[in-house]
Design a protein that fits this description.
seven-stranded parallel beta sheet, alpha/beta, about 250 residues, about 15% strand, binds nicotinamide-adenine-dinucleotide, 9 helices
Length: about 250
């Protein structure tokens, strides 16, 4: 198993891609902590997964990634209990799409706050535990629109582009301590987030994807597993595109 005895924290793990990453890591022997703000969905995800992988392997923590003291306290408790935190997946994210003329400052700030500042807070809080152990992996879930931009998503694409900057800078800061920081840039993945898209927009979208289909949460989970495991030990500062060729 690729993650035996590894302690992994997955933000936004109550649903969609984060839940699939949690399941995939559990399958590979990890102990998983799901951080989310959707308590009922988070608790039921953890309960569902614990039936298969065991009660002592998966835990739900009601943690808002934008709350620095809550994040820090919870990560300190996990580190104290297990003597390490091996993997952090910064996956929590939201969209508040609109054309810039109609985008409120509130929606701009909200998206930057959760998608980018939340990842900064979680990374900052986990990094000293990883540096102390001279080992760790941080995986940031960015997006193809952080590379290419997208009309109607100035806030979201700026947050995801910022996440790529955070990935590369932090990778440079901590590589000598054997802490590796990488990002995944998914294209369009079939989740609740993309389920909200209008059918006509979806049709148009499919034409622009050489693979002719949306990705699945499992596609992202398998890439996250690669970045969390020994298989990628020499990789840092990378942004792995996972988009069916959309970004070519
Ligand atoms: P989702 O909405 O299904 O899941 C996101 C999770 O994050 C939810 O459980 C939500 O409760 C949680 N969350 C929101 N705010 C939070 C906060 N402040 N603190 C903690 N948790 C919080 O979304 P998804 O489609 O699974 O997307 C997961 C990640 O992948 C996001 O970062 C998203 O931007 C990125 N992504 C998704 C796609 C896609 O096509 N679905 C494509 C590229 C990137």
């Amino acid at each position: 198993m690729k993650l035996e005895n590894k302690i992994c924290v997955i933000t936004g793990g109550a649903a969609g891609i984060g839940k699939k990453i949690s399941q995939c890591f559990l399958q590979e022997g990890a102990t998983v902590y799901i951080f989310d703000v959707n308590q009922s969905q988070g608790e039921s995800a953890a309960t569902e997964l614990s039936f298969v992988y065991g009660k002592e392997k998966v835990f739900y923590k009601n943690v808002n990634v934008t709350d620095e003291s809550q994040v820090e306290k919870t990560l300190d408790e996990i580190a104290a209990k297990h003597q390490s935190i091996d993997v952090l997946v910064n996956n929590a994210g939201i969209t508040r799409d609109n054309l810039i003329m109609r985008m409120s400052l509130e929606d701009w700030k909200k998206v930057i706050d959760i998608n980018l500042t939340g990842s900064f807070i979680c990374s900052k809080s986990v990094i000293r535990h990883m540096i102390k152990k001279r080992s760790g992996k941080i995986i940031n879930i960015s997006s193809i629109v952080g590379i290419r931009g997208n009309a109607g998503q100035c806030n979201y694409s700026a947050s995801k582009a910022g996440l790529i900057g955070l990935t590369k800078s932090l990778a440079r800061e901590v590589a000598s301590r054997n802490v590796m920081v990488n990002a995944i840039a998914p294209g369009y993945i079939e989740t609740e987030m993309t389920g909200k898209l209008d059918e006509k927009i979806k049709e148009k979208l499919l034409i622009s994807i050489p693979a002719g289909k949306l990705g699945s949460p499992e596609d992202v989970a398998m890439t996250a597993l690669f970045l969390a495991s020994k298989d990628s030990d020499y990789m840092t500062g990378a942004v792995l595109s996972l988009d069916g060729g959309m970004g070519i």
